Amino acid sequence: MKTWLFYMNDIAVNVYEKKTLTAERAKSLKAEGFHRLPFDTEAKDESDAVDRMLQHFRENTEALAEFTKDMTIPAIIFSLL
């Protein structure tokens, strides 16, 4: 399997195979306003890598939503004390 990296700006997410992304290309991406997402994955192809990235962030979003639900009631009770 190949390792895939993700770069994002305000409107786009680009996917690059780690071994083909040169330092010069990474610098040019930063100059174009892209920043590297703190996620990389191993996948057989670009499509599979995107699916894994979406699944990862979907799970994190769901976990964050559960966390805020769990913390809302104690925060309300604490603020009333």
Structure overview:
There is one protein chain. It contains 2 helices and 3 strands; from the N terminus they run ββαβα. It is 54% helix and 26% strand. The longest helix is centred in the last third of the chain and has 35 residues, at 46-80. The termini are far apart. It has helices spanning 23-31, 46-80, and strands spanning 2-8, 13-17, 35-43. By secondary structure, it is of the alpha+beta class.
Total number of beta strands? 3
Could you estimate the helical fraction of the residues in percent?
40-55%
Report the uncertain regions.
none
Query: Whole-number radius of gyration?
Result: 18 Å
Structural class: alpha+beta
What is the strand and helix layout of this fold?
Layout: E1 2-8, E2 13-17, H1 23-31, E3 35-43, H2 46-80
Task: List the defining traits of the structure above.
3 strands, alpha+beta, 3-stranded antiparallel sheet
Care to give the gist of this entry?
With 81 residues, the protein is of the alpha+beta class. It contains two helices and three strands.
